[in-house]
């Protein structure tokens, strides 16, 4: 393009990447660009695409709904796509999550969760405001969600605005007791409103995995102290970890759950925050001051809701669970050859997600190998975005064995180039 684009892209240093490829079409596991390349989407376009790009059933639902009703104000009306979706989500979610609040991104669903928790304590006459979080967590990029997430280069400029939270260590193998004890200590202080956590795997923090037994114990400690348990399933939801929701594997039900990314199969922006009747009822009153004061303009957009309903249909009518099991097995097969490779460490997998750390001089998100890896993947027409020296693969469920071969060969070559 002749003139410079006015667009400021997300998480993009334009001083290092003055131009970006132009995406012109997407289908299945592939994104086509204007220069004729077909790029395999090995990170599901930032973890949102579950079944594949443009699943015909979801596309058809979007087209049909767009012909009937676009945006309508959700504080004045309800509508069939939202009602159907909410009822079906309550049936699918862990027991006790009986109410559904709509928003439009993972970050807003977490903001809503935090506000629900504080509202609950205020309206039951026991004002508690402290939020307990896990080290290395990521919950979004708004000021509130940055506050409950890991601090680092991404938050440095905004740290003065972020509120204080209580932190517990990540439950690394062998260190679980320290995590439990820290949670116990923070819970006992009596001022903790809620504990928020990404169940089973911390995504943006580096694909750090911990077992269901640990998650169950964290839940148990919170229950014992009446601290609300918020499961941020924005990434883990919709099959990524091998089950529909990660909490299922631990047999737990949170008080509040956040779902977004795969909620519409990745086709439209939409998010929900589910909560227990106890939390809803604490706001239920004839007193307008107890209203839950939150809304986004596009709350429960009918077209997005219709896309989500179609996604649930896909889950119900197609062998999605079988596809996920097969993908997890194929991923495990690919990963095997890296287990004895001295260039890599912490070779790990949870469900459809794999990750491995390249043994570089510097670790962390700004590791100098990051840009070199990125370039190698671009040359191979494979979309991967390492988190520093952590390479991870999170493909859509329609990815083939051949696609996976391509992806893992690119990882091998990229490692050679990055370390040479
Ligand atoms: C991506 C993500 C979010 C934020 O979602 P957005 O839609 O990008 O705002 C929150 N929590 C987790 C665990 C995520 O992975």
If you had to describe this structure to a student in words, what would you say it looks like?
This protein has 420 residues and is an alpha/beta fold. The chain has two domains: 58-317, Aspartate Aminotransferase, domain 2; 319-419, Aspartate Aminotransferase, domain 1 (Alpha-Beta Complex), CATH 3.90.1150.10. The protein has 13 helices and 16 strands. The chain has helices spanning 44-47, 56-68, 80-92, 106-123, 143-147, 176-188, 212-224, 247-250, 277-283, 302-317, 320-335, 369-379, 401-419; strands at residues 23-27, 30-33, 38-41, 97-103, 130-134, 166-168, 192-197, 201-202, 208-209, 228-232, 256-259, 271-276, 344-350, 353-358, 382-383, 390-393. A seven-stranded mixed beta sheet has the order 4-12-11-10-7-5-6, sandwiched between helices. A four-stranded mixed beta sheet has the order 1-2-3-15. Strands 13-14-16 form a three-stranded antiparallel beta sheet, covered by helices on one side. Strand 5 (130-134), helix 5 and strand 6 form a beta-alpha-beta unit. Helix 4 packs across helix 9 (277-283), helix 6 (176-188) runs parallel beside helix 7 and helix 12 (369-379) crosses helix 13. The longest helix is centred in the last third of the chain and has 19 residues, at 401-419. It is globular. It starts with 22 loop residues before the first strand and ends with a helix. The mean pLDDT is 96. The site of pyridoxal-5'-phosphate has 14 residues, from helix 4.
């Amino acid at each position: 393009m002749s003139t410079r684009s006015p667009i400021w892209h997300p998480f993009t240093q334009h001083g290092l990447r003055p131009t970006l490829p132009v995406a012109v079409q997407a289908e299945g596991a592939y994104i086509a660009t204007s220069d004729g390349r077909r790029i395999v989407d090995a990170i599901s376009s930032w973890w949102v695409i579950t079944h594949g790009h443009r699943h015909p059933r979801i596309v058809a639902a979007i087209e049909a709904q767009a012909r009937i009703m676009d945006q309508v104000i959700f504080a004045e009306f309800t509508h069939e796509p939202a009602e159907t979706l909410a009822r079906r989500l309550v049936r699918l979610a862990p027991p006790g999550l009986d109410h559904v609040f709509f928003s439009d991104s993972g970050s807003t669903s977490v903001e809503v969760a935090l506000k629900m928790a504080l509202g609950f304590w205020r309206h039951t006459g026991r004002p508690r405001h402290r939020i307990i979080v896990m080290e290395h967590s990521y919950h979004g990029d708004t000021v509130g969600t940055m506050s409950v997430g890991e601090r680092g280069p991404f938050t440095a400029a905004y740290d003065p605005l972020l509120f204080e939270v209580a932190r517990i260590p990540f439950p690394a193998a062998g260190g679980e007791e320290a995590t439990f004890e820290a949670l116990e200590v923070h819970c006992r202080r009596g001022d903790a409103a809620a504990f928020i956590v990404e169940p089973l795997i911390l995504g943006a923090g580096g694909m750090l995995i911990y077992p269901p037994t640990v998650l169950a114990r964290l839940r148990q400690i919170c229950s014992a102290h009446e601290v609300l348990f918020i499961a941020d399933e924005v990434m883990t939801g919709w099959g990524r970890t091998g089950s529909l929701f990660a909490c299922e594997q631990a047999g737990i039900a949170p008080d509040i759950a956040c779902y977004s990314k795969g909620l519409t199969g990745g086709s439209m922006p939409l998010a929900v925050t589910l909560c227990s009747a106890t939390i809803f009822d604490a706001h239920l009153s004839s007193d307008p001051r107890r209203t839950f004061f939150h809304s986004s303009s596009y709350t429960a957009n009918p077209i997005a809701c219709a896309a989500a309903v179609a996604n649930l249909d896909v889950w119900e009518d197609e062998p999605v669970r079988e596809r996920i099991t097969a993908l997890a097995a194929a991923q495990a097969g690919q990963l095997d050859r890296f287990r004895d490779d001295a260039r890599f460490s912490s070779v790990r997998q949870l469900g459809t997600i794999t990750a491995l750390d390249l043994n570089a001089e510097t670790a962390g998100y700004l590791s100098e190998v990051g840009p070199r890896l990125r370039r190698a993947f671009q040359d191979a027409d494979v979309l991967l975005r390492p988190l520093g020296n952590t390479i991870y693969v999170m493909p859509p469920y329609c990815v083939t064995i051949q696609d996976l071969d391509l992806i893992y060969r690119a990882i091998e070559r990229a490692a050679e180039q990055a370390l040479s």
